[in-house]
Automatic annotation (TrEMBL):
NCBIfam families: guided_TnpB. It comes from Skermanella aerolata. It comes from the Bacteria. Residues 5-49 form the Transposase putative helix-turn-helix domain. This is Transposase putative helix-turn-helix domain-containing protein. InterPro entries: Transposase_put_HTH (IPR021027).
Length: 208
C-alpha cells in the first residue's frame, strides 16, 4: 500500500468521431473479456468449488486473441485490467465487502482503464490505440500517473479520471489518540472501526 497521497482529477473529453469509434472498440473488447472471464470463473466454481486467479485468466488472452482476432484491436493492458478488476471484485465479494460480480451490459455507462502509457500534454491526453484526445483541464495535475479511467455515460459524454501519486506523505487519522480504520463500501459510504456508519448519498444524474 502506498504511503503517499493519491489524488483523482476528472476531466471532460471530446474525441473525434473516429476516436469515438476506436473507444467503442476498447469498451466492447474490455466488456467481452470481463464477461468471458466471469462465465469461466462461474463454471469453475460450480465444477471445482474454487475461483480463478487473475494470472489464470490472463494467461488465456493470447489464445483468445488467436481465436477471436478482433480482440487484437484492443489495447493489451485494457484487456488485462478488465481481468484484474474481475479478480478484485471476487476478492471483495469473498471478503463480504461487495456483492457478487455481475455481467457487464453494453448499454448505459461504459469504462476502461489504462494502468500505463497514457499521458497528458496541455489539453490533450494520449490513449493507446486511440491517439491524442482533446480534453478540458481546469487545473494542474500533480504527481505520477497511476491509472487513467476513460468512461462514456448514457448521454454519450466522455470523461477521464486520472489517478496520480502526489508524492506527499499520507496524513495519519486518529481520534483521541487511537487509530481509526475506515472501510469504504457500496451500501454504506464508509464504516469506521468504532462502528460509525455514513450512508451513501443517492444522486439523480441529469444529462445535458
Amino acid at each position: 500500500m502506498s504511503n503517499t497521497m493519491l489524488e483523482t482529477t476528472r476531466i471532460g473529453l471530446y474525441p473525434t468521431p473516429d476516436q469515438q469509434q476506436k473507444l467503442a472498440v476498447q469498451f466492447g473488447c474490455a466488456r467481452w473479456g470481463f464477461n468471458n472471464a466471469l462465465a469461466l470463473t462461474q463454471q469453475t466454481c460450480r465444477e471445482a468449488g474454487k475461483s480463478l486467479s487473475y494470472h489464470a485468466l490472463a494467461v488465456r488472452l493470447p489464445g483468445l486473441k488467436q481465436e477471436f482476432e478482433w480482440l487484437k484491436e484492443a489495447d493489451s493492458q485494457v484487456l488485462q485490467q478488465s481481468l484484474q478488476n474481475l479478480a478484485l471484485a471476487f476478492d471483495g465479494f469473498f471478503a463480504r465487502r461487495v456483492r457478487y460480480p455481475r455481467f457487464k451490459s453494453k448499454h448505459g455507462r461504459r469504462s476502461i482503464q489504462y494502468p500505463q502509457r497514457a499521458k497528458l500534454e496541455g489539453n490533450h491526453i494520449y490513449l493507446p490505440k486511440v491517439g491524442w484526445v482533446k480534453g478540458i483541464v481546469h487545473r494542474g495535475i500533480v504527481g505520477k500517473f497511476k491509472t487513467v479511467t476513460i468512461s462514456r455515460n448514457a448521454c454519450g459524454q466522455f470523461h477521464a479520471a486520472i489517478l496520480t501519486d502526489t508524492g506527499l506523505p499520507m496524513p495519519s487519522v486518529s481520534t483521541a489518540g487511537k487509530t481509526l480504520g475506515i472501510d469504504v463500501g457500496l451500501v454504506d459510504l464508509a464504516v469506521t472501526s468504532d462502528g460509525s456508519k455514513f450512508t451513501n448519498p443517492r444522486h439523480i444524474r441529469i444529462c445535458s
